[in-house]
Amino acid sequence: MFERFTKDARAVVEGAYAHAEGDGARSVDAEHLLLALLDREGSRASFALSALGLAEPEARERVRRDVREARRRAGLTRADADALAGLGIDVSQIVARVEEVHGVGAMSGDRGRGTGRAGWSSGGRRPGFGRGAREVLERALRVALARRDRGIGDEHLLLALTVLPGVAGEVLADHGVTFEGVSRVCPAARSAAG
């Protein structure tokens, strides 16, 4: 599948690895792909994000902050937290107690900031994609095929993030970035260039 990725989409994947590495994460997650998309400039996805209200660095930083906060909740969406609240479980209370004992971000699934590649696995090898990131990549392929695009661009990754359940899609929707909006501001077809 990666041979079909444009240079912009490949750059997002590399950026996601860098974010995962910086977090000391065990795997590359959908949230890392979103963070890498936010870093991009001059690509179709960055144009779409800008057109949908995330042009300013402050706006993108708010998205990053919301992703970090969700990761602190062990990646639970608000819908997950609400469902647990219905069962009498206060997620924010649990997070506070765990962080009191183990430190801020203990529930994020990361091994700690700045651990680098050696912290990922023996031999310093890169981790694989987590289930959420794999679903994004697979959905991006489906989106590209449905749109009859020859290459998979970073806009396809963005579109995939908007339709899949989870933290990345919830955060994007909270900031006005939806599948319909991205589809509206991105051209209906793209060339295989890039």
From TrEMBL:
It holds the Pfam family Clp_N. Residues 106-127 are annotated as: Disordered. InterPro entries: Clp_N_dom_sf (IPR036628), Clp_R_N (IPR004176). Residues 115-127 have a biased composition (Gly residues). Residues 2-192 form the Clp R domain. Keywords: Repeat. The keyword Cytoplasm does not apply. This is Peptidase. It comes from Streptomyces argyrophylli.
